[in-house]
Task: structure prediction
Amino acid sequence: MEQAAIMPRLTGVFQDIFAIPNLAISPNTTAADVPGWDSLSHINLVLAVERNFSIRLTTREVRGMKNVGDLVDLIAKKAG
Amino acid sequence: MSFVSILFLLAAGAAACLHYALPARFRVAYLLALSYGFYATWSLPYLALLLAASALVYLAGQRIAAVPGEGQKKLFLGAGIGGLLALVIAFKLAGEIRGMLFPLGLSYYSFKLIAYLVEVYWDDSVCEPDFWAFMLYPAFFPQIVSGPIQRPLEFFTQLRRQAMARADYAQIEAGMRLILGGLMLKLLIADRLNAFIAAVELQPASYNHQIILLEACCFTLQLYADFAGYTNIAIGIGKLFGITAPPNFAAPFAASNIQEMWRRWHMSLTSWVTDYLFMPLQMALRGLGHVSTILCITISMVVIGLWHGLTCNFLVFGLCHAVFVSATALTAKLRRRIFGIHVVTRVIGYGIGVPLTFVAMTFSQLFWRTVTWANAMQHINLVFGRTPCGTLGWEGMRTEVAEPVMICMALAAYFGAGAPGLRWLAGRIGLIVPAWVQYGLALLLISTLTIEAGSSFIYGQF
Result:
């Protein structure tokens, strides 16, 4: 999947999960930049990403993500 | 050897000077010798246990990184984690049943070793090839008594950097400031609060309800001052040798809910449980929705409770927090909708949340601080007025114990809330008063105001 196509869809997922309609994300965005992105809401994000992009993530992959850029790379790789 | 003994601090200072005088290739071996020497002053047989556990985990880590198949990796990971957990549980049980002495720092170094195994399982490149550097990771003496629980990659990166570097005077000064601040928190505040708590605990039923309530709150403040004081000293000593440990406290009394408080209190343990237990559990149970959240929170908080000891009271402490954290997580959206709409509602929410969080923490401490269930019930009945309280007030204790309580409680609460404005004030004072005068004054305060009957660190027992 093209990285350029992932970002707008992923932004929608973030806005929905964190209930912030005008939330803007970039590859450098980390948990510290998004209000409410903590260890509890992280799993909701993972679930929403899996559902939205029809992929399955492993604990190792989720643990290895440092920012939104890593998540985009992972989706691009997994979604083919 | 205690972190607050003058002999230990002088020896640590001298050892740090020698460390920087040594050629780079000897520094890891030197730190390892220092760490084992420190441990040996406490117990030689348990030093052998530390050596054996570390060496076996080193070998297990090598195997996890070397074997190609996922199944084989899991086998070595499971064997390593199982062995370490069995060790901790066996000694905790032996302590409860037979009164056997618990090995110094076992809870901390076993959690470090488990972190290493899981990290290697997740990423082969974390595997540490240098045997002596690896052996230093669990044994590093500033962290072995009560943490902080530093992550392996962070430790090894810093270890390599410090072995090659000259003395970093800014880091050493920062370390000395932390040691000084930690000593003040422990000796001037925590020990005074401890004297008050000990006086009430001698005859709790004799004191009036006001003193009983104050003492319950005082315990939470004392625990903070004691453990944060210890942590500051531990991080400070590490810095003298070029290793900066992660923080354990970040203004816990400024937290407006219990979930936030756990992100600010004993942080190195909380983040360990989050990364190596809560997150993998959540991933495994992610299809179950809210049930999964509550289950994962409950298991994690119970583990935090039982990590302190395998007793009914610690279990109930964990369960209390499971309820508090679950309630916080499940009401997050509702609270955001009610209190998040305007700056005024946010301030109101904060004004309600901060004292409520402190009360919840203090309530759970009634189980944490007591050894037996009957003892916990006695405290709870007195606090909630279900048992008639006595009539004794401040006059029931010695003046030198009663007099400083309120000021020490206020100071502990102020520092525990992140010491708002202190940085600005310190900057202003720094313009007028030279640093050496400030340090001299701090040492003078410590030497003149430290009470004779100082207590040991509360977290040293775990």
